[in-house]
């Protein structure tokens, strides 16, 4: 199975840049020393890092333009993003039941890491517009979902692994990645709790190890139920609906013939 979105030099560089900036923007509480003045701006972090949205849009534009996506591929990207955005509100606020995650896993698996990152980020953006969830947290959600979907495209055996073994691989990945997604998004907002809950809040005077322990306690106390619900929902839907959806996605990809160049026969053909 070929990758319909081939990352060229510019889009790959943009992806690496936004991933690096995003990793620093999210993980700065574990990177900044206790004496750093960055910690004094914890309350400003979401607004300062909202510039990630601009970088993410740049990645999307560069990927679509540089990879030479045809109208069929762009249409599939739009349909999958719209479907994921429509699925996200289902069960929202109910034990983390979010069926869109299994769609992202299967789509990333079939369509590759480049398409996966583009699809994941675009789906979160469309979902935010649909539900009115636009805010300083949106770039972090787009970045985390882009990583989540891209990771499915990087799993081994894309061209040869099929059947139950592939479903188990995708279910295990979905379970682990659902937790990783939730913790990544939680980490982006966690520094805002500084001073509100002494045992689990970010402490600008503590070192990285102490803050890591605080964050794990915070995640366990406040988000474990949602993360577990999201992970279990992803596993169940992957195992139950995965075979049919994988076949449909692969059939649609073959019919779309993403990488088939358009040629014209000469007058004498």
Write the layout of secondary structure elements.
Elements (H helix, E strand, L loop, with lengths): L8 H23 L13 H4 L3 H15 L4 H17 L12 H32 L6 H16 L10 H26 L18 H15 L1 H33 L13
Helix pairs in contact: 1-3, 3-5, 4-5, 5-6, 5-7, 5-9, 6-7, 7-9
Describe this structure in a few short sentences.
By secondary structure, the protein is mainly alpha-helical. It is built from nine helices and no strands. Helices cover about 65% and strands about 0% of the residues.
Describe the structure.
The protein is built from nine helices and no strands. With 269 residues, the chain is mainly alpha-helical. The protein is globular, with a radius of gyration of 20 Å. The two termini are 31 Å apart.
Distance between the termini: 31 Å
Shape: globular
Count, helices: 9
Sheet/helix structural class: mainly alpha
Strand content: under 5%
* Helix/strand order: HHHHHHHHH
DSSP helix fraction: 55-70%
Largest sheet: none
What's the total number of strands? 0
Unreliable stretches covering 5 or more consecutive residues? 261-266
How large is the radius of gyration?
20 Å
Averaged pLDDT: 78
Features:
single chain, 269 residues, mainly alpha, 67% helix
